[in-house]
């Protein structure tokens, strides 16, 4: 079994468990994965995160610094980029071709959409989403 962090088009984040990646992809394609909060079946996988652990054990000072840096990045993006949800690729293309007003946007995209963006020469950045803090203990 593997666990994926998933997000619906309304921005709800939840975890899904699957036998393997192929099972996830086929369930996603058939719309069998639904958001437990709003029942939306337009669900995408959030780019996987990486884990860090300091030499001293636990997060350590460097880990805590990395965590707060990540959180500042996440806050900055929330404050300065409009959330377009799963319409990211569509909006990015519209802006690229001058159909939509140029602005900062953030959202999710499928690997196929990302390939389209690359082919169209639309630059974008993918960032890992920091996991929720465990606790401050
Ligand atoms: Zn939802």
3D structure, described in words:
- The protein is α+β, with helices and mostly antiparallel strands and 137 residues long.
- The chain has 2 domains: 44 residues, no CATH class; 61 residues, no CATH class.
- Helix content is 36%, strand content 15%.
- The chain has 4 helices and 5 strands.
- The strands form 2 sheets. The protein has a 3-stranded antiparallel sheet. A two-stranded parallel sheet has the order 4-5.
- Strand 1 and strand 2 form a beta hairpin.
- Helix 3 runs parallel beside helix 4.
- The two termini are 30 Å apart.
- The C terminus is likely disordered.
- Zinc ion binds next to loops.
Give the SSE map:
Elements: E1 2-8, E2 13-18, H1 21-29, E3 43-45, H2 60-80, E4 82-83, H3 88-96, E5 105-106, H4 111-120
Parallel strand pairs: 4-5
Antiparallel strand pairs: 1-2, 1-3
The chain binds zinc ion.
In a few lines, what is going on in this structure?
The protein is α+β, with helices and mostly antiparallel strands. About 35% of the residues lie in helices and about 15% in strands. The chain has four helices and five strands; from the N terminus they run ββαβαβαβα.
Assign a percent range to the helix content. 25-40%
Large-scale geometry = globular
Reading the helices and strands in chain order gives EEHEHEHEH
How many distinct domains? 2
């Amino acid at each position: 079994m593997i666990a994926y962090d998933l997000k619906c088009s309304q921005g709800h984040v939840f975890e899904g468990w699957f036998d393997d990646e192929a099972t996830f992809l086929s369930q996603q394609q058939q719309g069998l994965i639904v958001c437990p909060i709003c029942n939306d079946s337009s669900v995408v996988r959030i780019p996987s995160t990486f884990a860090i652990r300091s030499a001293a054990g636990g997060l350590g000072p460097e880990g805590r610094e990395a965590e707060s840096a990540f959180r500042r990045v996440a806050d900055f993006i929330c404050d300065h980029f409009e959330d377009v949800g799963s319409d990211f690729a569509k909006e990015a293309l519209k802006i690229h071709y001058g159909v939509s007003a140029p602005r900062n946007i953030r959202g999710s995209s499928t690997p196929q959409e990302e390939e389209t963006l690359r082919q169209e020469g639309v630059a974008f950045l993918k960032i890992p989403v920091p996991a929720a803090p465990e606790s401050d203990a």
